[in-house]
């Protein structure tokens, strides 16, 4: 197992493959294990680094409040720890929020950006979003994390043939530290980089499932504020696209990241990692 320390937190990561570095940032209540299909596909041509965000997976539980920018600082510290000055970033859901922050914090390092079922702000000021956050907090307080996993899993994977995915999700949520999850919810509710979108000039691919929590039109609206972004829709998928449509997602990811690597004229360093000229 691979660990490093940043900001007094022990963080776990996976590091697989060779080539241009790709950093994967998972969603709320998730971990590096939920990227296994993407790691397998991308590591054929890239060095893939998947980080367990603080409080998630095999990273240490947290007891103090934090902001999304601090998760981006964790990610940046990991890439510095690995001596990778340039890399591509893929963020899903909450990980997409971290990716937005990272693109702003490390403009020279982030070569391209993929945002999956996420956005530049949490929209916590909407009544619907406030209710969703309150509902999750209530279930956690009264019934616990496994029950929350069961409720969310039924929404993410409603089809009869998705039973194994529901059970996998529920089991993963049952292992999640309750306080860490609640602090992550708090960080999400406070997140917004909407006003900074014109500053994100890296090539950006925004991926939306056709049945995501937020409509496709919401993603189409915010990418208009980004100088170099485009939108792709994956059909027959709900919010957890990396899990319910891995093959379709992997095809889009490998094509986009491959095109960015070719455009950037990647070269192999003597030590192994790929560096940007």
TrEMBL record:
It comes from the Bacteria. The keyword Lipid metabolism does not apply. Keywords: Hydrolase. It holds the Pfam family Abhydrolase_1. InterPro entries: AB_hydrolase_1, AB_hydrolase_fold, AB_hydrolase_sf. One of its GO terms (molecular function) is hydrolase activity. Residues 21-244 form the AB hydrolase-1 domain. This is Alpha/beta hydrolase.
């Amino acid at each position: 197992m691979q660990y490093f320390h940043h900001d007094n937190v022990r963080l776990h990561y996976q590091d697989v493959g060779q080539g241009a570095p790709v950093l994967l940032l998972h969603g709320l209540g998730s971990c590096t294990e939920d990227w296994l299909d993407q790691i397998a596909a991308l590591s054929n041509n890239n060095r893939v680094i998947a980080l367990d965000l603080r409080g998630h997976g095999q990273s240490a539980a947290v007891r103090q409040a934090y902001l999304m920018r601090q998760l981006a600082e964790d990610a940046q510290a990991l890439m510095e720890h690995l001596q990778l000055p340039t890399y591509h970033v893929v963020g899903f859901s909450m990980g997409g929020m971290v990716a937005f922050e990272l693109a702003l914090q490390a403009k020279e390092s982030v070569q391209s950006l993929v945002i999956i079922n996420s956005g530049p702000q949490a929209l916590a000021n909407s009544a619907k979003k406030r209710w969703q956050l309150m509902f999750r907090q209530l279930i956690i307080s009264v019934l616990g994390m496994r029950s929350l996993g069961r409720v969310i899993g039924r929404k993410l994977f409603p089809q009869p043939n998705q039973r194994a995915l529901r059970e996998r999700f529920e089991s993963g949520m049952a292992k999640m530290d309750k306080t860490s999850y609640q602090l992550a919810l708090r960080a999400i509710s406070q997140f917004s980089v909407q006003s900074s979108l014109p500053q994100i000039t890296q090539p950006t691919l925004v991926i939306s499932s056709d049945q995501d929590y937020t409509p496709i039109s919401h993603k189409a609206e915010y990418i208009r504020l980004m100088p170099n972004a485009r939108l792709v829709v994956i059909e027959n998928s709900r919010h957890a696209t990396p899990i319910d449509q891995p093959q379709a997602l992997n095809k889009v990811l490998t094509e986009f990241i491959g095109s960015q690597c070719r455009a950037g004229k990647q070269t192999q360093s003597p030590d192994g990692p790929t560096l940007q000229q």
